[in-house]
Amino acid sequence: MEDHVRPGSRTDALVTVVAPIRAVLFDWGDTLFESPHAPTIIRSAARAAGVALQDAEADRMWDELWAAGKTEAEHAKGRDLSRDAHQRVWRDLFSRANARVPGIDAVLYQRVMDPAAWIPYPDTEPTLRALRARGVPVGIVSNTAHDLRPYFAAKDLDRYIDAYAFSFEIGAQKPDARVFEAACAMLGAKPDQTLMVGDDPVTDAGAGAAGLQVFILPPPTAGGAARGLDRVVALVDRSRA
Questions:
Q1: Which of 5, 111, 153, 231 has a Cα-to-Cα distance from 88 of 20 to 30 A?
Q2: Please, what sign has the CA dihedral across residues 172, 215, 191, 162?
Q3: 190, 192, 198, 201: CA torsion to nearest 10
């Protein structure tokens, strides 16, 4: 059975696209780069505070916080438009767990939300290299209050990136269509021939409203596992066959 990717569609299966893909946009976090393992950080902070915390509780605590962080209500607080807002909004969210682990809001913000601590998935570089070999322009589209360019450069990935569209520079956040329109303009790409690849069905799937094709990855697996980005290359190849 074949699935189809359409503007705004969500799937983690290999799909048939509706137009040739001439450019690809990627989200950053949980798409190309993996975060530090937050439950481990929570358990460590709990031990330091003298709090008994089971592994399952730490996992559940983080899952609830991260899921809340992906809601429309949290995105609407404008956390990715400035560094001050980023710290204020995230720490306010993380403070929901302070009653259980005192001060965990500061620990999580410092150790999880610092982009310097994030690392590329094993299949990030091979995927970007494969797209470069095919002559496909690549852009990074991220809701972020940080300039991520140095982190791509530090991992020697900047040579594969043609444009960066960051919310704090554009003055708008995904899923606002202006973000995706700006990214396409930077690449000189037509929206209907551009594929947006991300992990968030709220923000990344907003590219559909700007006329882009959308591919939403399944939730990531922690621990350095491949992200499944080879499917993006397969999509590009299939669309241009």
A1: 153
A2: positive
A3: 140
CA–CA gap between residue 213 and residue 24 (Å, rounded): 10
pLDDT (tens digit, 0 to 9) for every residue of the chain, 241 residues total?
233 344 444 444 345 467 899 999 999 999 999 999 999 999 999 999 999 999 999 999 999 999 999 898 999 999 999 999 999 999 999 999 999 999 999 999 999 999 999 999 999 999 999 999 999 999 999 999 999 999 999 999 999 999 999 999 999 999 999 999 999 999 999 999 999 999 998 899 889 999 999 999 998 887 789 999 999 999 999 998 8
**CA 144 from chain center: how many Å?**
10
133 three-state secondary structure: helix
Specify the DSSP class assigned to residue 14.
-
Q: Pick one of 2.40.50.140, 3.40.50.1000, 3.30.450.180, 3.40.50.300 as the CATH number of 3-34+118-239.
A: 3.40.50.1000
Structure-token pair, residue 207:
């590219």
Give Cα 131 to chain centroid, integer Å: 19
How many whole angstroms separate alpha carbon 27 and alpha carbon 140? 6
Distance CA 117, CA 35 (A): 7
- DSSP E strands in 83-230: the ranges are 119-120, 138-142, 163-166, 194-198, 213-216
The domain segmentation of the chain, as residue ranges, is 3-34+118-239, 38-117
